[in-house]
């Protein structure tokens, strides 16, 4: 097994969770992904995201959870995954949604979490690329205590949903993302989905 | 709902030497294996062409893309052709982001796919 079942769930008062309005815990069983997708669609719509943005958030969360199940828990069905959703009103780019996904799977080298070369025509390995393309921020970190990973996703209401319909105009250079000791993030510039150094 | 708990169903029909696989419902990690099984079943009949009718698929995750890339490789190896038809805009967007759009023969509908 790749995880420690005894590892604690996220603390309610932790930085990642204290402002969460919704928390979901699920086991690493892909059969539940459709329910999470439906749930996320409703949450996004209720918070004012338009349909294209909603589709992108749903896709990112679905891919992130699938990655935890497949790579983190190596398809074992008894791993725990926590999803915390925090709407926020105040930020430089206005209101949005923060989604934190945590697990108790083995911790991986943060620098190794990157999208693969899209020139390679082969199945698999696209999830991280898509997550980074469609979300404003996607930050991987190690959970405290030496067990488990945390992925923090952010999407602003002001984000144009340009990548989904203009994918051929978006940069695919994801390898230049800086990876600090404790986190690897893909925080995009304020001017849109693929802004700043990603050259959309 | 399928017996495996998947909300996705794949209808397989044959028009002469052309096989048409028509999944309906989301294709995510849980549902992709059913599509893979259906396409392999269609290939067993040695069709000259396999059309995957995606008009009933409102959502596709990368597991679905991976299945279709694998299907394309299998059909090529078998001397057959794979055509994707009736793709929703949001599903096409996932192909675009993944840079896979140019890899496939894509038709607006079944009739167009049959004539390709």
Main beta-sheet annotation of chain B? 5 strands, mixed
Distance between the termini of chain B: 33 Å
Determine the fraction of residues in helical runs of chain A and give it as a percent range: 10-25%
The main sheet of chain B orders its strands as 1-2-3-4-5
The CA-CA distance between the termini of chain A, in Å, is: 41 Å
Multimeric state: heterodimer
Number of H/I helices of chain B = 4
Protein topology:
The complex is a heterodimer of chains A (200) and B (116).
Chain A: E1 22-27, H1 33-46, H2 51-72, E2 80-88, E3 96-103, H3 127-134, E4 137-142, E5 149-156, H4 162-165, E6 183-185
Antiparallel strand pairs in A: 1-2, 2-3, 3-5, 4-5, 4-6
Helix pairs in contact in A: 1-2, 2-3
Chain B: E1 9-15, E2 18-24, H1 32-44, E3 49-53, H2 62-77, E4 81-85, H3 89-97, E5 105-107, H4 110-115
Parallel strand pairs in B: 2-3, 3-4, 4-5
Antiparallel strand pairs in B: 1-2
Structure description:
With 200 residues, chain A is α+β, with helices and mostly antiparallel strands. Helices cover 24% and strands 20% of the residues of chain A. In chain A, strands 1-2-3-5-4-6 form a six-stranded antiparallel beta sheet, covered by helices on one side. Chain B has four helices and five strands; from the N terminus they run ββαβαβαβα. In chain B, helix 3 links the parallel strand 4 and strand 5. With 116 residues, chain B is an alpha/beta fold. The model of chain B has no long low-confidence stretch (mean pLDDT 91). The longest helix of chain B has 16 residues, at 62-77. The chains are: A alpha+beta (200), B alpha/beta (116). Chain A binds chain B through residues 30-31, 33-34, 37, 52, 55, 58-59, 62-63, 66, 69-70, 118, 121-124, 126-127, 129-130, 133-134, 163-168, 170, 172, and chain B through 5-7, 26, 28-31, 59, 61-63, 65-67, 69-70, 89-90, 93-101, 103.
């Amino acid at each position: 097994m790749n995880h420690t079942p005894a590892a604690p769930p996220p603390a309610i008062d932790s930085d990642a969770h204290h402002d969460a309005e919704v928390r979901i815990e699920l086991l690493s069983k892909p059969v539940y992904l459709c329910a999470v997708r439906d749930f996320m669609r409703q949450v996004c719509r209720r918070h004012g995201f338009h349909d294209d943005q909603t589709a992108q958030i749903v896709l990112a969360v679905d891919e992130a959870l699938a990655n935890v199940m497949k790579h983190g828990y190596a398809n074992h069905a008894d791993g725990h995954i926590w999803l915390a959703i925090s709407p926020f009103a105040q930020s430089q780019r206005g209101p949005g949604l923060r989604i934190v996904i945590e697990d108790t799977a083995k911790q991986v080298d943060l620098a190794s979490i990157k999208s693969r070369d899209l020139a390679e025509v082969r199945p698999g390995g696209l999830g991280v690329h898509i997550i980074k393309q469609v979300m404003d921020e996607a930050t991987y970190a190690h959970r405290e205590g030496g067990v488990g990973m945390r992925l923090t996703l952010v999407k602003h209401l002001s984000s144009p949903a340009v990548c989904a319909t203009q994918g051929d105009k978006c940069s695919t250079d994801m390898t230049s993302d800086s990876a600090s000791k404790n986190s690897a993030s893909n925080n995009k510039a304020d001017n849109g989905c693929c802004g700043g150094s990603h050259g959309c | 709902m399928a017996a495996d708990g998947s909300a996705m169903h794949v209808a397989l029909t044959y028009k002469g030497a052309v096989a048409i696989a028509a999944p309906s419902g989301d294709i995510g990690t849980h549902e992709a294996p059913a599509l893979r099984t259906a396409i392999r079943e269609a290939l067993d009949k040695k069709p000259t062409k396999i059309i995957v009718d995606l008009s009933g698929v409102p959502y596709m995750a990368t597991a679905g893309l991976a299945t279709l890339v694998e299907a394309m490789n299998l059909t090529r190896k078998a001397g057959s052709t794979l055509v994707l038809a009736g793709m929703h805009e949001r599903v096409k967007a996932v192909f675009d982001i993944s840079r896979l759009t140019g890899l496939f023969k894509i038709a607006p509908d079944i009739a167009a796919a049959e004539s390709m």
